[in-house]
Design goal:
Low-confidence stretches: none
CATH topology: Rossmann fold
Number of domains: 1
Strand content: 5-15%
Order of helices and strands: EHHEHEHHEHEHEHEHH
Helix content: 25-40%
CATH superfamily: Alpha/Beta hydrolase fold, catalytic domain
CATH architecture: 3-Layer(aba) Sandwich
């Protein structure tokens, strides 16, 4: 299962899912509440706990076991909470250039202060006070793919509830017993306009703690700029697990 990042939806991962299915995997790409095609379900109280429930619900209602659970970018937040709650269903957790919280941390805690302030101002000016559009600094960079394709991608992004970034994750510690892996995307300059790269210290933590670690020469959104390479890395990590 692959959980998308901020402002996106399961639709982002269609090309990667197709490539993984061609390699023999069953793949689920759910969309979190209030995002993507479920944007109409957004409301001020949609927070991280809601998104954790979204992921757990798919695991339980599809009756999935031995799952390779992947989270991209913001998706690392709900994946962490869901893996902790349903650890008996998980074989491996893969973070794809993702946020990886500890108990009690929110996404805002892991992101630069400049981003937090930008989010709050943007929500007040453009998102009814409870949601905000993707900052321009985090849009996929030009030059990796055709500009028409990049524009189509950006046009499908939707404002995200602030509460999903502000609410802390709660974990029991069960996730600490699960195998984890990290895929670091090295092809872009993420965070140059929001104060700092929020993924760099998390990638360093993954290496320090001995997780399986891979690097992919792609932008922060590898599902857009290198879906085949992304599928290959995920397949290799799953096979190793």
């Amino acid at each position: 299962m692959i959980v998308h990042g901020g402002w996106g939806g399961g639709w982002e991962w269609t090309a990667v899912a197709r490539a993984l299915r061609a390699r023999g995997h069953d793949v689920f790409t759910p969309t979190l509440t209030g995002m993507g095609e479920r944007a109409h379900l957004g409301r001020p109280d949609v927070g991280l706990a809601t998104h954790v429930e979204d992921v757990v619900a798919v695991l339980e209602l599809e009756d999935l076991h031995d799952v390779v659970l992947c989270g991209h970018s913001y998706g690392g937040m709900p994946v962490t909470g869901a893996a902790d709650l349903a650890s008996e269903r998980i074989a491996l957790v893969i973070y794809i250039d993702a946020l990886v919280p500890c108990d009690g941390q929110s996404a805002f805690d892991l992101l630069p202060e400049e981003f937090v302030e930008l989010a709050r101002v943007s929500a007040a000016e453009h998102g009814d006070g409870w949601r905000f559009p993707i900052p321009r600094a985090l849009l996929p960079p030009g030059g990796w793919i055709a500009e028409e394709e990049r524009a189509r991608y950006i046009g499908r992004l939707r404002a995200q509830p602030v509460a999903s970034f502000a609410e802390p994750v709660r974990v029991s510690g069960a996730i600490e017993l699960l195998p984890r892996a990290f895929v670091r995307c090295t092809g872009g300059d993420l965070g140059g306009d929001i104060g700092a790269d929020p993924i760099a210290p998390i990638a360093a933590r993954a290496q320090r703690e001995g997780w399986s670690y891979r690097e992919l020469v792609a932008s922060h959104d590898p599902q857009l700029t290198d879906p085949a390479g992304t599928a290959a890395v995920l397949d290799e990590l799953a096979a190793a697990a």
